[in-house]
Amino acid sequence: MTIYNFAAGPATLPDSVLEEAQRDLVSFPGVGTSLMEMSHRSKTVQDMIQSAEDDIRSLAGIPDDYHIMFLQGGASLQFSMAPMNLLTPGGHADHIVSGSFAKLALQDAQKVGDVRVAGSTEDQDFVRVPYQDELNLDPLSDYVHFTGNNTIIGTEWPTEPDTGDVPLVADLSSNIFSKPIDITRYGLVYAGAQKNLGAAGVTMVLIRDDLLARSAESLPSMLNYATLAKSHSAHNTPPVFSIYILGLVVKWIAAQGGLEQMSRQNEDKAQVLYEALDASEFYRGHALPEHRSRMNVTFRLPNPELEAQFTADATTEGLVELKGHRSVGGIRASIYNAFPKDGVSALVSFMKEFERTHG
Amino acid sequence: MTIYNFAAGPATLPDSVLEEAQRDLVSFPGVGTSLMEMSHRSKTVQDMIQSAEDDIRSLAGIPDDYHIMFLQGGASLQFSMAPMNLLTPGGHADHIVSGSFAKLALQDAQKVGDVRVAGSTEDQDFVRVPYQDELNLDPLSDYVHFTGNNTIIGTEWPTEPDTGDVPLVADLSSNIFSKPIDITRYGLVYAGAQKNLGAAGVTMVLIRDDLLARSAESLPSMLNYATLAKSHSAHNTPPVFSIYILGLVVKWIAAQGGLEQMSRQNEDKAQVLYEALDASEFYRGHALPEHRSRMNVTFRLPNPELEAQFTADATTEGLVELKGHRSVGGIRASIYNAFPKDGVSALVSFMKEFERTHG
Questions:
Q1: Assembly ipTM
Q2: A200 vs B contacts (CB less than 8 Å)
Q3: Measured between CA atoms, how close is B34 to chain A, in angstroms?
């Protein structure tokens, strides 16, 4: 039976990536030992990291005045590292709160310094993101932080908020490289790898070089963007294997046709599911249609008992990890870059059959 | 040709661990997807993490009043996390400086709070660790920090410094589980996995429960030991694959006979190399004999040209990664738990032949 894995992250990886990683795990080509056994200062590992970086630059059009870093600690560590590094003495930052992770980012940032809420849809249970005219952005703030996609409710910003000349900082963990990105609109982007970029254990951080000047010397080395950027992701031992998997995934995206093609495929997959939702009275989507996520499609059934039955029956059909986040319940189908179209079709068929027999 | 990998870390892993990881990489037994694709909240991943923790408790005799955490950022992030969490308001800590990494730990800790040097062998170029009677320990300090093994010069503490009732904090990255450990002598132990415990990307942290009360609520969540301990290594997405490899290595150590057996093997391997050094006028060890490391055996040849020739010739014989750390030069043979005795014998034979032809 084919298994389709709708997990919200860690999530489905391309088969070819897993197969290559498996083939080369014990004996890395040209070396004879495992990549996991090799010094991070060896030419092989340095070349691997450089190649991942080069491929990211080429895939997403990242210019030379941005550093690409592979860090640890997940997006969650960036919640505090961003303000530690980017707040200026006496300065403050604006956060836009469009979901639970945006709220966690706010809470950690507020432990670091003067961080304000410039907009929130918490009153609307995060079923949409804030509209531009609802934002109360201070043109004097050090930066504006937003969260590109809400995995729990399943909303996504159709485009970046307009922050004028204030640097934009974004947690794009759950929709990075799912579509083209104009990096010049951002000062800092961070993304845990385990949804669209690979396996858990590495966070990609893109930062515009001029912002590195803000990192104070008083910051501990592992929390200092300037120190980390200078060392080329090897201030200490980097998470070599996770960077390797990320590099394979980036190559895979390029081989599929790049970010434009990813965007088309992701639109296409999401549309099939949303059309099925909209054609039914049995299933009700969480998110407002205009801000629906292409990554996480969330919905409810008439009652929790039917939802439990739905996920149980789906699992026996090989459609696994469909249970919604514990904070909202319901169903969540996460369909990141590597999730195959066939899995979406299989889910739609299952939904129709389930509605026919239980509706 | 058999390749013996003397890398200082990331370092040699047991063949059986690599083979099991390879076999199960694409399709994890009983699941059908890769472990790298599975939710960190899934039963399989939670069981895997729990099993790694249970095996560590059993292997090293870690009692229930210690938390075991699998964190990110390497030992280097612990350099600042330890003082962030363990310094009390108005309090101070003592650091013992016995090598370059101990010095880095000191420098990062001093960025966080009042951290003093209670002993240092920097004047002796770190060729030994401080003697107990050289230590200037304040019985009122919040904790004492030391570094168990110096990978660069190749020294190791024969036993822990005696700190009385002051909690002992240790970076044991390069000799953890190479011998039995009396954890009750420690308040906090941290160790990057990539030398004795597995692959890069995870740091094992053992902390005595009473010390968790010191973590202030004002600390960002990913830097707060109390928050991280409560979440059972899943406050955010943990580095699943690195924890998995660590778990396999811990099982492997247990299967070899446990820490007593590791200690015997490591003593035995190191002794063979040190005897070869001591029997020769051609090779000169860096470290003072009484504080020699069982993990990193370092030595010089009569001149740098011969050292370059030595590493080049050794590489063609399959004895790789023997070049000493760039800060001291010379030769370094790292022979952690998983490094096979046969590799040590092969190096000794090579050394004798090289001395015969170049001595």
A1: 0.97
A2: 36, 40, 237-241
A3: 8
Determine the Cα–Cα distance for residues B202 and B338; give it in Å rounded to an integer. Answer: 18
pTM for this prediction: 0.98
Whether A104 sits inside 8 A of B21 (CB atoms) is no
Question: Nearest to residue A178, comparing CAs of A262, A113, A245?
Answer: A262
Q: How far is A61 from chain B (nearest CA, A)?
A: 28
Sequence letter at residue B140:
L
In CATH terms, A15-256 corresponds, of 3.10.20.30, 3.40.50.11210, 2.40.50.200, 3.40.640.10, to 3.40.640.10
Token pair for B145: 């920090």
Interface probe with B: pick from A4, A15, A31, A34, most Cβ of B within 10 Å: A34
Cβ distance A202 to A239 under 8 Å? yes
The position carrying tokens 């707040």 is A87
Contact (CB<8Å) B36/A19: no
Dist. CA B270–CA B276, nearest whole Å: 10
Residues 6 or more apart from A111 whose CB is under 8 A from it?
Answer: A80, B218, B219, B220
Report the residue from A73, A194, A220 with minimal CB separation from B111: A220
The CATH number corresponding to A258-358 among 3.30.70.360, 2.60.40.420, 3.30.110.70, 3.90.1150.10 equals: 3.90.1150.10
Q: How do the domains of chain A map onto residue ranges?
A: 15-256, 258-358
Q: Which residue of B has its CA nearest to A26?
A: B18
pLDDT values of chain A reduced to their tens digit, one per residue, 359 residues? 899 999 999 999 999 999 999 999 999 998 889 999 999 999 999 999 999 999 999 999 999 999 999 999 999 999 999 999 999 999 999 999 999 999 999 999 999 999 999 999 999 999 999 999 999 999 999 999 999 999 999 999 999 999 999 999 999 999 999 999 999 999 999 999 999 999 999 999 999 999 999 999 999 999 999 999 999 889 999 999 999 999 999 999 999 999 999 999 999 999 999 999 999 999 999 999 999 999 999 999 999 999 999 999 999 999 999 999 999 999 999 999 999 999 999 999 999 999 999 98
Beta-carbon separation of B201 and A74 below 8 A = no
CB contact under 8 A, B200 and A39: no
CB distance B32–A3 less than 8 Å? yes
